[in-house]
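Late entry, written up from scratch paper. The run itself happened at the end of the previous shift, but nothing got recorded in the book at the time, so transcribing now.
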Amino acid sequence: MHQRALAWREKTLGLDHRDTLQSLRNLGATLHCQERYAGARDAPRRGLTSREETHTLDHRNALQSVNNLGTALCGQGKYGAGEIMHRRALVGREKRLGLDHRDTLESVHDLGVALHYQGKYAEAADIHQRALAHRKKTLGLGHRDTLQSFNNLGTTLRSQGKYDEAEIMHRRALAGREKMFDLDHEDILTSVDDLGTTLHGQGKYNGAEIMHRRALAGREQTLGLGHRDTLYSVNNLGTTLRSQGKYSEAEIMYLRALAGREKRLGLDHPDTLQSIRDLAVALYRQEKYDEAEIMHRRAFAGQEKTHGVDHRNSLHSAGNLDAVLHGQRKDSGVEIVHPHITAGRGNALRPHSPDILQGVFRLAVTLLSERKYEEAQVMYRQGLRAMEKALGQDHPDALDSMNMLAETLLDLGRYDEAEAICRRALAGREKVLGVDDAATLTSADNLGRTLYHQGKYEEAEFIFQSTQAGRKKLFGIYHPDTLLSTLRLGVTRLDREKYEEAEIIYWHALEVMENALGPDHPGVLESMNTLGEKLLDLKKYSEAEAICRRAIAGREKTLGPGHRDTLITVNNLGLALRNQNKHHEAEINYRRAFMGAEKTLGLDHRDTLMCIYNLAGALHKQGKYEEAEKMHRRALAGREKVLGLGHRYTLRSLIKLGTVLHEKKNYDEAEIIYRRAVMEAERVLGPDHPKKLSPTLHLPLCPSDESRIMMEMKVHVYSRMKSCWLFSYISYPLISFSNIRWFYIGVPFFSMYDMC
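Output as recorded:
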């Protein structure tokens, strides 16, 4: 209709008539609502040209066309160009109409949006604050435009990580809109959905789910199942469910959003591609790697077709595909993706563009993961020097890249280098962003992890305590980052032998997580399992038994009885029972863990072998020597094959097998096993410690002395190992906390308990 009206007015009234120009404006607005941004851009451009010829550049109608053009450019993702137009319109309107005129405030608002989408959150927040202040003054608190400014300011504050302030803004906007409109009005539903997103950012997933379900129900009723806003709510609900660990439910939501968007918007629309990416993540979280790869490849192909290979969304999809290929260990895929990303960015951007340099760093990460250290170091140093030269040492992008380098070095165990880079990144972010910024706290957290791995526990504890306080202030106690800092503080206090303080921290963290996420969330169950392991280390076996049983019930419900995490907790329960001399119950749990691990992971998997070893120990304690011997032999054979003769777990299997043979009075074979254990220990220790074992190895074995000498040999093996570093290599370590140290700090771990 607008096109027909425009054609008639152009023919009848002429191109420069004000009614013709109004039709151009109306057509542009309609095309913008339909997301036909190129047409929406061209219409204001035509109107602007005509109005510039008809009026001066500061004429109100010309300024309206300038502002409309800025909005259309932003709709195309050309936020920098849009910002220029909005600034031009704002200057003209301030001059012609005054600071408080509604058109001026429209330009202020639109400029804030353009700045927001460029990541200029601090400036955007200032602009939205200005719009809000003037709208409150001229229009009143309850005006629709004022409430829009409240909502927009909340969105920008959320992007700055200021979730508590953002929540206040969104709740004020919602309260005002609820007074003004019916409960199913589109403005109310927008506020509800935005509030849900903010609650999600705070880690208040239950509250976020309630908001997103409310927005979805309202939009289904008022707009219909297939409306774009309805599908937006469906997708948001899926994301909240995913964050709660409800991956199968999230998958259902994403599939629904995807089907609706394909039908309404087309296969290559940005919203459709976003649903494809989100669905891929949900599939990945369920370990459906093949399906996830298909979805990521589809998203990448769609982005290439729609935006071209050089567009940031195409590169983002390629990065997601890269992550899936890493998860599947498809190294050939990694070799293809990274050069593709870097080459694409090189064609699209300036030589020192941050996106090109980020591609350099991503390639360096891959080289490091493939142990190509020299090549990786060259890439990192070149990239960092170029970044600092192009942007300056304290530019946020340079600091982000520095932080990425630090995290990679940390993951690879190169702690001295990581510490130096962490300190540089932290100092830069404190200077540029402030000590309480979310990115600054991330750098501080990385420094704490680095110090922890170097055994600098006192300084690490101070850092974790500081990051916990900062994140608690910034995000609130329920946010995942706050909880992560809390748990890392607990790990560090455990290593400083502050056992009671560590236990208090874990109980507190578990309570907070249960309140925030619900008792069946995977993160809650992981923390519950970890708390059980800590109680085992503190020899509080009855409490450990109770918490392990709770974790098993939750994991069976959410993950299934055969899931690896469920089996880990079953194994831990077995240890809690064994240490209470409930050996028969321990045997039942160890046998279940063994059978599940064998089915899920395979007979030669490290976890399966650990379960066999533990089951053998439970059988041994009950005097079931024949089956215990059989299990120990299976564990030993598997460990020799998988881990090698000199591995600490292989040596432990040797010694335990020797013990069973000794108690069966099979002294000859027990002697062979013990001698073999001594020889392997000697080989592992090296040439510096041969003398302490030699006297025992040359003892004559008379029949009457067999039992005594075998015991001496066994004791001497242990005492020899206690005299050097090998004791920690072979004896019973705090295996229970290997899980939490990996999960919360990043130490490589062995997932099942190994009992002595």
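The radius of gyration is 32 Å.
(Scratch paper discarded after transcription.)
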